[in-house]
């Protein structure tokens, strides 16, 4: 992969990125999900990318070059997790993605900027729900680019005329005319029809390192060809993806809104439903019974920049939000939260403020748990395909060292997390400091 331009832009300077060493954070109150409260002042030692020790007493370290941070009684909480992002699609407009002059270097530079900003907003982990993500993830993991941990799905898998069919009007079917679409060549999507094609597409993503598989099971609001009500993929096609994923010890997540599409996905063995704003009570009860995750969003209203077609397609989705969130909570469905910003890069700066939209249905403690511990549990459905083994979303000994030091108590004032530039005093991912506004010694 050509990474020269992105490396030049995003190689981290020593002023921002402190090499991994022991970090002792003293005098901090820990966010405890079990009690929905803050602990008394504690000391926390981070070492080898993990939370090694938590104690009310002083902690000593054998590493003479350790970094010491006085937390001054502030709140130490887990890093934020967004369970449904598109690191590439969210950084570009549709016009930019389809621009024939868009090169890999330009693409990576744009998504690299967004990746850095996302980590600076306190998001230390994300699940990428489809797109050409592997070069960016590799660059982050190698320390060449700043960004969150990424659980990648790889190219979305879509039927012809499905939600992942991004062909322009002049692009013909690969099956009949032999030429892949530009979106397929970019690694954005696989257009796969029939059991054999779905198996190949699934295995191809797994070959590149997908931690889970993203399948399009119903109509979408941002795609050109499919009405929102349509069901996509036959049961046999969907089962093919599930079987191939399960053979690799992981799972399938599906894009779907309607009860019909979601019931078919559940029958096929899918573990995570993405969106679902048009769900009914019967299907939600089925999800609760079968322990299926609902990875849901709380979308903003239509804006003037959207096409009339997209505005019309979004209506039933927007209308369903106020019903589905509280009903899913009441019925005990496993709930995860994500943003799903798609081809609207101007929204990225609002990622944190979207969390506050959950206050209509959840307490501050419930929201903080959802965007950390609950989302982390969903990520770990990847099992051995998880790129980052270990426990996330909690402040516990032996958990991965992804933590935020917050200036205030987010249990009392959730709005603190909506202003990360001001209120996130320290940002640490994998035991490395990426932001620190406090004095160290």
CATH superfamily annotation of the largest domain: Metal-dependent hydrolases
Total number of strands: 19
| Portion in beta strands | 15-25%
The percent of residues in helical segments reads 25-40%
Q: Report the structural category.
A: alpha/beta
Main sheet properties: 9 strands, mixed
How many domains comprise the coordinates? 2
CATH level 3 topology of the largest domain: TIM Barrel
Sum up the overall morphology in one term: globular
Low-confidence stretches: 1-19
Mean pLDDT: 91
What is the C-level CATH assignment of the largest domain? Answer: Alpha Beta
Spatial extent as radius of gyration: 22 Å
* Number of helical regions: 14
Span between termini: 40 Å
User: Quaternary arrangement of the chains shown?
Assistant: single chain
CATH architecture of the largest domain: Alpha-Beta Barrel
What's the layout of helices and strands?
Blueprint: H1 4-10, E1 23-32, E2 37-38, E3 42-47, E4 50-55, E5 67-70, E6 75-78, E7 80-85, H2 94-98, H3 104-120, E8 123-128, H4 134-141, E9 149-152, E10 156-158, H5 174-177, H6 182-185, E11 189-191, H7 194-208, E12 213-216, H8 235-247, E13 252-256, H9 259-268, E14 272-275, H10 281-289, E15 293-296, H11 308-331, E16 334-337, H12 351-355, H13 364-379, E17 403-406, H14 420-423, E18 424-429, E19 432-436
Parallel strand pairs: 1-5, 1-6, 7-8, 8-9, 10-11, 12-13, 13-14, 14-15, 15-16
Antiparallel strand pairs: 1-2, 1-3, 3-4, 6-17, 17-18, 18-19
Helix pairs in contact: 1-3, 7-8, 8-9
């Amino acid at each position: 992969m050509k990474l020269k331009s992105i490396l030049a832009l995003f190689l981290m300077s020593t002023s921002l990125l402190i090499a991994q060493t022991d970090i002792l954070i003293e005098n901090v109150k820990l966010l405890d999900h079990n009690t929905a409260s803050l602990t008394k002042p504690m000391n926390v030692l981070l070492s080898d990318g993990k939370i090694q020790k938590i104690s009310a007493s002083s902690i000593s370290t054998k590493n003479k070059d350790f970094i010491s941070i006085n937390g001054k009684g502030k709140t130490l909480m887990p890093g934020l997790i967004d369970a449904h992002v598109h690191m590439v699609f969210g950084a570009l407009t549709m016009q930019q993605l389809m621009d024939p002059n868009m090169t890999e270097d330009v693409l990576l530079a744009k998504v690299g900027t967004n990746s850095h900003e996302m980590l600076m907003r306190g998001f230390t982990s994300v699940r990428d729900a489809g797109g050409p993500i592997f070069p960016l993830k590799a660059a982050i993991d190698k320390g060449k680019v700043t960004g969150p941990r990424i659980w990648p799905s790889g190219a979305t898998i879509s039927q012809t005329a499905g939600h992942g069919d991004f062909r322009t009007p002049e692009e013909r079917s690969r099956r009949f005319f032999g030429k892949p679409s530009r979106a397929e060549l970019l690694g954005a999507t696989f257009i796969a029809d029939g059991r054999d094609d779905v198996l190949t597409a699934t295995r191809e993503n797994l070959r590149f390192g997908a931690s889970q598989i993203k399948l399009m099971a119903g109509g979408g609001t941002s795609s050109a060809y499919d009405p929102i009500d349509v069901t996509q993929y036959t049961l046999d096609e969907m089962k093919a993806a599930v079987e191939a994923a399960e053979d690799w010890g992981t799972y399938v997540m599906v894009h779907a809104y309607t009860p019909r599409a979601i019931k078919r996905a559940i029958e096929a063995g899918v573990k995570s439903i993405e969106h679902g704003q048009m769900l009914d009570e019967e299907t939600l009860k089925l999800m609760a019974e079968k322990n299926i995750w609902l990875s849901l969003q709380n979308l903003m209203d239509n804006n003037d920049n959207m096409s009339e077609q997209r505005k019309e397609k979004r209506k039933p989705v927007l209308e369903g939000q106020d019903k589905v969130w509280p009903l899913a909570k009441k019925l005990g469905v496993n709930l995860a939260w994500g943003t799903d910003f798609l081809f609207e890069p101007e929204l990225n700066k609002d990622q944190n403020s979207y969390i506050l939209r959950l206050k209509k249905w959840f307490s501050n403690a419930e929201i903080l748990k959802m965007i950390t511990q609950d989302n982390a549990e969903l990520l770990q459905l990847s099992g051995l395909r998880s790129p980052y083994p270990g426990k996330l979303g909690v402040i516990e000994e032996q958990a991965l060292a992804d933590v935020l030091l917050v200036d205030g108590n987010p249990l009392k004032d959730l709005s603190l997390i909506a202003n990360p530039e001001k209120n996130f005093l320290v940002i640490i991912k994998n035991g490395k400091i990426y932001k620190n506004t406090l004095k160290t010694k």
